[in-house]
Write a structure and sequence with these properties.
By secondary structure, the chain is α+β, with helices and mostly antiparallel strands. The chain contains 14 helices and 5 strands. Strands 2-1-5-4-3 form a 5-stranded antiparallel β-sheet. The termini are far apart.
């Protein structure tokens, strides 16, 4: 069987099995992967349901196909063989099995690989960037990486959505949310224009990450979840990232015209801060009222004014 592009050929140790707990860890890794695979229904992974399944959850070959790895290699991984997966391949398996942040870390620990999760990126970023983002209030602000994962945000930005904190950190990707999250989509006034630009920006950025399974896995997930994304992706449009004026709809204060300004934090890594400043005085007033209500500092007259603003 040919080995997929993203996977190095399995390296099987030629030395006797270790007796210092390594075998136990590999067995635990296999059991953990089986348990996660068996809990995932085919339709949750974007596959059609089948009545002929003899075992619950996904088949091994389905996990391997969705993750872009070899079936034999994945089978060996579940069997506790002495193979040495890379962090990139483990990321692809974790995304396919829809592991949360804790499960992702557990997977890497059992495999003996240093974690490189989105949560870890966020923790590394927040100590320096989060205070800056908070200081930009009453203006919304976020931090993104090149893959458009949402690494940090302030309270005004979070107020656009009821459940931002409850979204699994692995799904806090603005491209994924724009196509799959109802409230996220509703906040984007000119959705078709913005969505097309986001897809074109992602394709342009992906040129430097064609061998990265995390980038390819996101595309595969979106193609299964959204026919609209699949159609846009097939156009092969590309576009660079640039600042511009956009319209957004807040559920409490209504229509806002915002200037998106990109500030590069680590351009080599594609990490940037995006600040949303008001494009007109009406937007500024609405943001200030919104911020005052969020922090509980508004006087009765200001609260009444904020309540009177219709979406």
């Amino acid at each position: 069987m040919a080995t997929p592009d993203i996977l190095e050929r399995p390296a099987v140790a030629a030395v006797p099995a270790a007796t210092n707990g390594t075998d136990s860890r590999r067995r635990e890794l296999g059991a953990f992967l089986r348990s996660r695979r068996e809990r995932l229904r085919p339709e949750q992974a974007g596959l059609p349901p089948s009545r002929r399944r003899r075992t619950p959850g996904l088949r091994r070959e389905e996990v391997a196909q969705l993750a872009g790895v070899g079936v034999t290699w994945y089978t060996w991984l579940e069997q506790g063989r002495d193979i040495h997966p890379s962090a990139q391949v483990l990321d692809a398996v974790a995304r396919t099995l829809q592991l949360d942040a804790h499960e992702h870390t557990h997977l890497f620990t059992l495999a003996g690989v240093a974690t490189t999760t989105i949560a870890e990126q966020c923790l590394g970023l927040c100590s320096t960037v989060q205070p800056l983002i908070d200081k930009l209030e009453p203006f919304p602000a976020i931090a993104l990486n090149a893959r458009l994962d949402l690494l940090a945000y302030n309270g005004v930005y979070a107020s656009f959505f009821d459940d931002l904190e409850s979204i699994p950190i692995e799904d806090r990707n603005i491209l994924w949310l724009a196509f799959t999250h109802r409230q996220w989509r509703a906040a984007i006034v000119d959705w078709h224009e913005v969505a097309g630009r986001m897809v074109a920006e992602y394709r342009a950025a992906m040129a430097e990450h064609l061998d990265d399974p995390a980038w390819k896995t996101l595309v595969a997930r979106l193609e299964r979840a959204s026919p609209e994304f699949a159609a846009l992706w097939e156009r092969h449009d590309v576009q660079g990232i640039e600042s511009r004026t956009k319209r957004a709809r807040h559920p409490k204060v209504g229509l806002l015209r915002l200037i998106y300004t990109n500030l590069w934090l680590a351009q080599g890594l594609g990490t940037r801060l995006v600040a949303f400043s008001p494009a007109d005085e009406r937007t500024r007033e609405r943001l200030e009222l919104l911020h005052a209500a969020l922090v509980g500092r508004s006087r009765p007259g200001e609260r009444a004014a904020a309540a009177a603003i219709a979406p």
